[in-house]
Amino acid sequence: MNDFSDIENELRALRPRPPSPALLESVTRELDGLQTPVAREDTILRPDRFRPGWLSLGLGLAAAAALFLLARIDFPVAPRVPPALAGTTPKPLPAAQLLPAQFIPAGATRVVYGRQDEGLVFPGGSTSPVRRVRSRGRETLQWHNPGTGASLRVSYPSEEVQFIPVAGQ
Amino acid sequence: MKDREEVMDNVATHENWKTCFAALAPGLVLFARQWVRSGADAEDIVQEAFVRFWRQNRDVANRGLLYATVRTVALDLIRKDSRRARREAEAYSDIVQTVEPQFGGDDETQRLLVGAINRLPHEQREVLVMKIWNDLTFLEIGEGLGISQNTAASRYRYALVALRKDLMPQ
């Protein structure tokens, strides 16, 4: 750029006119506001904001009381489930509507694995003899939950004593 | 020049933005004046651009971005006002010389020089303004105008050649 140093010097000799003072004032207004932000009226927390407003407080309490009373009134409510008709068998609930813990009986078995004839006896001062037969076995009860597919089985030993009347010859 | 560099080194704080603005404002207004007819409009542009730039950057380390902001604000202003846009479109033409930088000094040589500057193509004139009266490097000029620094240097050279040719005695 040495070839143009003469004209560059001439150009630099031209000085731009300074901007008006109003420009500096305008920028100062905006940037000084940035530096020390002036609190707007709606951002100032004044002490009177913390004083209780009696009118507002009274209205609030009245509204709360009305709400409480409404909550306490026992409105008659129509029964949602129609009464079951007498003599009708309740429909079995579909499997999907059963509760998970609802089991229905699925079966009952009784297995006798021993029977013993204990002979003739006269129970209770009876004058007619009866034959006492003692049976021993195992009873099993089963429940099934269609909703979950679970099954429950209870098995226990059982003993049964039968008195069979004996016909006299 | 050295004083200006010292100013630029020391202005990158919020507290002395006024120093920064005082140093840059004449060149910025001159730069903005290329897009508008009146000095008041140019000052409005500079005000909006400088405030926007300072709020976002808080220093002038990136001067290319500052001038790009001025340019953006100026072009936005032109786009907003269609009448102004038409007027400025006419001002861009090299025939109608309504846009001219404001300079001090009234001697004949300087008036001739100012006239020659006004006859430069717009893209050469804006590079000249950024280089001569704003002390931007070609890299910063490129950043501000969205061109490469080589393009900026070329435009500057073309501007000087054109000025010399214009001022050469017939």
**Helix run count of chain B:** 9
Provide the low-confidence segments of chain A as ranges.
36-47, 83-88
Q: Report Rg of chain B.
A: 16 Å
Overall 3D geometry of chain A? elongated
Strand content of chain B: under 5%
- SS element count, helices of chain A: 3
Gap from first CA to last CA of chain B: 35 Å
Tell me the number of strands of chain B: 0
What percent of the residues of chain B sit in helical stretches (DSSP H or I)? over 70%
Strand content of chain A: 25-35%
Structural summary, described in words:
The complex is a heterodimer of chains A (169) and B (170). Chain A starts with a helix and ends with a strand. Chain A is elongated. A 3-stranded antiparallel β-sheet of chain A has the order 1-2-3, with no helix packed on it. Chain A is built from 3 helices and 3 strands. Chain A has 169 residues and is an alpha+beta fold. Residues 36-47 and 83-88 of chain A have low confidence and may be disordered. Chain B is an all-alpha fold and 170 residues long. Chain B is 72% helix and 0% strand. Chain B has helices spanning 2-10, 17-32, 39-57, 63-80, 82-92, 108-118, 122-132, 138-145, 149-167. In chain B, helix 4 runs parallel beside helix 8, helix 7 (122-132) packs across helix 9 and helix 8 (138-145) packs across helix 9. Chain B is globular, with a radius of gyration of 16 Å. The relative contact order of chain B is 0.12. The model of chain B is unreliable at 94-100 (pLDDT under 50). The A-B interface holds A 1, 4, 7-8, 10-20, 22-24, 26-28, 30-31, 34-35 and B 14, 17-18, 21-22, 25-27, 29-30, 39, 43, 46-47, 50-51, 54-55, 101-105, 109-110, 113-114, 117, 128, 132-133, 157, 160, 163-164, 167.
